Each structure stands twice: as structure tokens, then as C-alpha cells.
Amino acid sequence: MAPPSRLLPPALRILHRCRASTRSRFSTAASSLFSPPSKAVVYDEHGPPEQVLKVADVPPVEVGGRDVCVRMLAAPINPSDINRVEGVYPVRPPLPAAVGGYEGVGQVHALGPAVTAPLSLGDWVIPSPPSFGTWQTHIVKHESVWHKVRDDVPMEYAATVTVNPLTALRMLQDFVKLNSGDSIVQNGATSIVGQCVIQLAKVQGIHTINIIRDRPGSEEAKDKLKQLGADEVFTESQLNIKDVKSLLGALPVPALGFNCVGGNAASLILKFLRQGGTMVTYGGMSKRPVTVPTSYFIFKDISLRGFWLQKWMNSDKAEDCRIMIDYLLGLVHEGKLKYEMESIPFGEFSLALEKAMGKHGSQPKQVIRF
């Protein structure tokens, strides 16, 4: 007769539970279930990421009745992840022993005996809304955290679908009612949000005017954005003229602009906007303030707004979030949404971190592959 599961070592408990799951998802044969031992990127204090982050062994974690154990497949390094480690982001995981990462995709490894969500072993899932601690090989969280996603897209897209593409989608929908034939203007157009804005706008028949930095390879960057569907792409120096609207040709003057840079790049957005236009700021890569001439308020009635995805997701939008994620991954599957990423093995996390922090020049989004 097989020994009771409580007498088995942790690793065999997992095997015992998984075998039981194939017979019945609600089997009570395993009285105690644990995750496998894991590795995680952790930090005990805030500071420079290259100094405070370390890869550590994490002991097995008990899987409760309605918990799901997920084996992570991939997770990105976002700028906000770095800001959390530095301690400058408004919302951060508690210290010590904080695990980095905020979004990612994994595969269901084991199910607690009382799980009622429609999940099966092997399903691809993402934390939705995102949650702290995705830079680790195994995660145990309540079933309500996990959202099943399609597995017929590259895992890097499932890992990155929430933060950047969802930001682009919400900004296109939440501030100005746009109709087919309208146009928007944005800076930071080579970012993933920028690339997504171009493609999501194209799906809706909306034109995009895009601003990029002056740097080596800017002509190549212009070509790539136009291949994605951009109508116009300008470097910042091209817009050092009094009447930037003369560059629009037949395109309508935009009513909506997106700023993720600040400083002069934000001022260029304002120059394009029509009477009563709105500029939405969702980032500040230049770390320079947004400065607005008084005349823009008085004579153009410009509105300045801000967008923070985490606040939006925390405002009882979980179900909406999941519906839009499914929509975005559907566009990925159809070839209508794509962006540049670089996949790096978890064992080379330090290199991925350096690239994400710009220490190797401009790099694509870094995605850790477990």
C-alpha cells in the first residue's frame, strides 16, 4: 500500500498530488501539498538594482486548498520594476525578502484540492491584475490571482501583455472619444507602449504622428515604425520650427497626445494639439518637468491629464482587465500586434538587468526565460 502523502518528502508530495490530479481535481489523497524548491531574484533593501538584487534559493511553499502552484515561463524587466527596487515607485512590495517582477506568464504545475477555477495542469496563466514577485521559478497564489490565457502565441507576448499594451489601449479609449479618421500624436514612439499605440490605432482607423529622439539609427527606427503602421514619424530636431502643423499634410490636427518623456519632447506634443486638445502623461523618461506656456491654457484651452495603469486596475477593473488581455493576445495571434523584445535565460539575469538599465545602449525589452 502506498504511504500517506504526509510521510513523503516535499518533492514526492508534488508528484503524488499531480498524479492524483489526473484522476480527480478535487482528490483529497494528498493532505499536504508543497511547491518545488525555487530560485528567485530577491532584495532586502532599496538601492541600485545591480547592488541589492541577488538570486536566492526559496524553500517549498505549502499550497492551500484554493491555491495554484505555477511554474513560471517568462517575465519581463520593466522600468517600473527597476523603480520598485530603487524604492522610488509609489507602490512597492514589503521588505525584507521582496521578490522582484510584476508581470509574467507561467504554467499550472499543481492545483489545491478545493480549486474551483476552470484550470488544468499545463494551462498558461498570468497574474491579472499583475502582482509582485514574478521573478522566480515557482509561485503559489490564490486561484483568484490567475487568469488563463491562450498558449498559441509566443510566451514573451503573454509575459508582457499587461503593463505596456494595456496602457496603450486604455489611453486610446479613456480620455478623448476618437473616431476612424482622427489622429493622435505621441513621443517615445519606439517604446513598447508607443509601438502598441501605433498598431492599436491602426486597427481603429486612427492616424498616428510619432516623435522619436535624435540618435544614430533614427532613420532605421522611422522605417520600423512605418512598417507597424505609423503615418508620420519625426525626430525632435525636425520639429524645431514655428508651425509644426504644416508637416501634417492631409492628416487632421490631433485632439489627443501621449507623453512619456517630459521636457522638450512634451512641449512638441503641445505644439501639435488642436484647440481644446488633451495631453496624457504616463511616464517621464527624461526626468525633466512638463512646462506649458500660459498661452496654451488661455488661447488653446489645452488639458493636461495623467494615466497610471496600476491605479486603473485597482479600481475594480479586474474583469475588464482580463477581457482586454484576451483581446490583445488575439491581435498578437492575428499578427496585428507585435513589438521588439529580447529573451534571455534566467541564469543570465545580471546581463538582462544591465541591458534593461541602459548600460549597453538602447536595447529591446528584456524578458527573462525560466
Automatic annotation (TrEMBL):
InterPro entries on file: ADH-like_C (IPR013149), ADH-like_N (IPR013154), ER (IPR020843), GroES-like_sf (IPR011032), Mito_Enoyl-ACP_Reductase (IPR051034), NAD(P)-bd_dom_sf (IPR036291)
Biological process terms in GO annotation: fatty acid biosynthetic process
Domain Enoyl reductase (ER) residue range list: 47-368
GO MF annotation: an example: enoyl-[acyl-carrier-protein] reductase (NADPH) activity
Record-listed E.C. numbers: 1.3.1.104
Compartments where found: Mitochondrion
GO CC list: mitochondrion
Assembly notes: Homodimer.
Family under the similarity heading: Belongs to the zinc-containing alcohol dehydrogenase family. Quinone oxidoreductase subfamily.
Official protein name in the record: Enoyl-[acyl-carrier-protein] reductase, mitochondrial
Species of the source: Paspalum notatum var. saurae
